[in-house]
Amino acid sequence: xxxxxxxxxxxxxxxxxxxxxxxxxxxxxxxxxxxxxxxxxxxxxxxxxxxxxxxxxxxxxxxxxxxxxxxxxxxxxxxxxxxxxxxxxxxxxxxxxxxxxxxxxxxxxxxxxxxxxxxxxxxxxxxxxxxxxxxxxxxxxxxxxxxxxxxxxxxxxxxxxxxxxxxxxxxxxxxxxxxxxxxxxxxxxxxxxxxxxxxxxxxxxxxxxxxxxxxxx
Length: 217
Hints:
This protein is α+β, with helices and mostly antiparallel strands. It folds into two domains: 1-62, no CATH class; 113-213, no CATH class. It contains six helices and five strands. It has helices at residues 31-48, 52-73, 82-107, 111-118, 134-141, 199-213; strands spanning 143-152, 155-166, 169-179, 185-192, 195-196. It has a five-stranded antiparallel beta sheet. The protein is rod-shaped. It comes from Intestinibacter bartlettii. This is Zinc ribbon domain-containing protein. InterPro entries: Zinc_ribbon_dom (IPR026870). It holds the Pfam family Zn_Ribbon_1. Residues 29-82 are annotated as: Disordered.
């Protein structure tokens, strides 16, 4: 065994060092083993370049940084594309305004022209013979009636639309009156289901409409 004070080699079981007199009954440490442990610990520190607590803290920081990076990279689904939605709404509103302005520019206020035709009479179907005005006669004969007025190629038009039975088939009728500054009018064109009709068909239609309306009051 070795004395812990003077490093003198002593026989096993000696109680006092014969060199320095140190009490050898106190437990001695094998300095060679201690050096080995120290070298082992130092080796681990050199391998990591830091103590265990620093190593743990750094790993935690790295994990947190990765987690934060992942969180920042995740898309935010709670935000709605309001800008795109607002643009679409703006376009729709603009189109609606333009359509409204176009309608006003093409038709305008023609209530007076429509009233002039509806309250008028055909020359061959006068009130003296029991015939009503054009408006009452047409609305009596046709269903789903409507009236409007507009100007086309410098011609003032009052247009009537309605449905009736033509050879037992429900047919759309579009009849246009040309109006004049003196309040008179005449028939300008007639279409059945979008097909133009000749003067013979138009004359037969007016006869049937007015004859059915005669003495209706």
